[in-house]
Amino acid sequence: MAQTLLYQYGPDHFEPSSPEGEARREMIYRDPNPVYVGFWRRLLAFFIDGLILTVIDWILPFSDFMQRLLDLLYFVILPATSWQGTIGKLAVGAKIVDGEGERISILRSIGRYFSQFLSALLLFIGFLMIAFSAEKRGLHDWICNTFVLNRDSELYP
């Protein structure tokens, strides 16, 4: 085996040094074609989230104001955590990232939450855009510059 390597590379050949840290991560995990999560998986995630919040409401009957506050906290805080999505998004294997492929901030998450009302207000056309766009983005994703990807996929600008 040593003679084979010597024959292939010669006596003066030195192996290139392996990259360190971030360069190695980019070489290993760089995916030029991220997998976007489509309309049906996102709809399933929304139904799972709705079921979870309904069960919480049955167990702990809150007032309407408290229920809306719980919805706000659920849909704003969880996407901004390291989970990068709600429990429904985790269940379908999706995550929410910003335009740089990083976790979204709490302010971007708030903007995304309230822009979903705009998507619904326009006869749900903002949500139907997900089914017909190449990057599977709805109106609220365009407004806040977010993407919904498979959990094991990466977005590189």
Task: Explain the overall architecture.
The protein has 157 residues and is mainly alpha-helical. It has one domain. It contains 8 helices and 2 strands, in the order H-H-H-H-H-E-H-H-H-E. A two-stranded antiparallel ribbon has the order 1-2. Helix 4 packs across helix 6. The two termini are 43 Å apart. The mean pLDDT is 86.
Features:
two-stranded antiparallel sheet, 157 residues, RDD family protein, transmembrane, 57% helix, globular, cell membrane, mainly alpha, transmembrane helix, 8 helices, single chain, Pra-immunoreactive
SSE order and pairing:
Blueprint (H helix, E strand, L loop, with lengths): L1 H8 L11 H9 L9 H21 L4 H17 L6 H5 L2 E5 L7 H16 L3 H8 L6 H6 L1 E5 L7
Antiparallel strand pairs: 1-2
Overall pLDDT score: 86
Helix/sheet category: mainly alpha
Number of helices: 8
Going across the biggest sheet, name each strand in turn.
1-2
Question: What can be said about this structure in brief?
Answer:
This protein is mainly α and 157 residues long.
